[in-house]
Amino acid sequence: MKRVGEVTNRYLINVNTNTDETRAIEPPPSVEECPMCKGARHLRVDVPYGHPFFGRLLPCECLTREQDERAFTELERFSQLDPFRHKTFENFDPKVPGVDKAYNYARKFAQDPQGWFVLIGAYGSGKTHLAAAIANYALANRNQALFTVVPDLLDHLRSTFAPASDVQYDELFERVRSVPLLVLDDLGTENTTPWAGEKLYQILNYRYNEQMPTVITTNRPLGNVDDRIRSRMSDEAMCEIIQIQASDYRPKKMGERLDKRPRKPQYRR
Ligand SMILES: [Zn+2]
Which residues, 6 or more positions from 132, have their beta carbon under 8 angstroms from its beta carbon? Predict the structure, then answer.
């Protein structure tokens, strides 16, 4: 799995702008010339004088398509979804007692992500499976999503903050903060330093103010979460909180594991 620290500046582009500067970071690969813009990558629109687009250059479809592709490539590099790629709604068992409410809401959220969805559950309750399924669903439908495990995310942010880092801290922070769908797995298990706690708060506070779709899983009661984050979670108009009651989702699945990954070795004490 690629770690965030392996991403180089070469791939960091600002997908929100169409400036020449953006394209200059990495020239487009030589592909067949676009028949619409003949390689100019921008088009003047045929509109009458007085129209807001009159005389303006608009990005050609070929440019927006390429920018979308780059955004996906970049998100894949930042994402920690690789170990959870196979976790989908199709291989989640909604009949396990205690998971149906979370499962139904997760499906609904995946189809139309709005606001925040907080999943509370014990270790092995299936919450990470559902969170990963939401991210996988978005990516399968070509919607931008970032799945990240909170303690690892904070480690990555710390390492990119180091002067010798390849990745610019600002770029990574901005990417996580503003991705259309953010999935944060395992909130509350991070070993919070004041710095890390502040970064996490800044990310979530931004997404709260901008009302950006965000999925958060935690195995802790919300009482352990930063007061400022908890107060945003308590906004019922914005945030749906569902506690998975299943004592353990995974052991029930042992006999019919859909999970093809090798199991962790069991050591005797
Ligand atoms: Zn074109």
Answer: 81, 84, 85, 87, 147, 183, 185
